[in-house]
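Please decode residue identities from the backbone states below.
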């Protein structure tokens, strides 16, 4: 088993909602491209990005530098989905994913949601389980990546 390097939690990280389409949004997309799509030889298309206009986008910033991002997608009927969770490779294992996800959960609850779902990449499943998510259904492959559906009831 490979030991996981740990640098200690970063305390001075600011989570900020970012409007769709502006300079900060383009930085979020660049991070998502680098973390989620480039390893698959892909990138987000203009059509995919245009379709996100009604979703909510969050960035984790430290000293003005973007280190992580996540997206909240309202689904209606008290449900929402967290998508596009990505933390810069050099900033992982320092608590950024946890505080980003917590903020998304808080925002979803504030918007009246009682359940948050996600399509978790299997490599990231242990992260979500630590944040209180439960696996539902069978494993599947999406964009050539193994996934599991997960769910969390919000307080
Ligand atoms: C998954 C991801 C968002 C986690 O972000 P992070 O900032 O590294 O996570 P944190 O530092 O907040 O970790 C919180 C806890 O989860 C654990 N953890 C984080 N990533 C993990 C992983 N891939 N596997 C197992 N445990 C993990 C941490 O060790 C930590 O555990 P602790 O509470 O016992 O200390 C990040 O690794 C990432 O961007 N991965 C690549 C893209 C990806 O897979 N995104 C998810 C798509 S569904």
């Amino acid at each position: 088993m490979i030991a996981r390097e740990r640098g200690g939690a970063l305390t001075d990280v600011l989570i900020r909602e970012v409007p769709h389409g502006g300079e900060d949004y383009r930085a979020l997309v660049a991070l998502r491209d680098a973390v989620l799509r480039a390893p698959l030889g892909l990138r987000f298309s203009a059509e995919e990005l245009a379709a996100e206009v009604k979703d909510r986008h969050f960035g984790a910033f430290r000293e003005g530098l973007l280190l992580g991002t996540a997206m909240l997608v309202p689904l209606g009927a008290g449900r929402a989905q967290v998508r596009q969770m990505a933390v810069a490779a050099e900033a992982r294992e320092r608590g950024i994913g946890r505080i980003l996800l917590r903020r998304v959960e808080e925002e979803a609850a504030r918007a009246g949601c009682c359940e948050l779902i996600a399509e978790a990449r299997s490599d990231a499943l242990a992260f979500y389980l630590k944040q209180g998510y439960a696996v539902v259904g069978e494993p599947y492959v999406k964009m050539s990546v193994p996934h599991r559906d997960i769910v969390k009831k919000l307080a």
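Observation: The CA atoms of residues 77 and 146 lie 28 Å apart.
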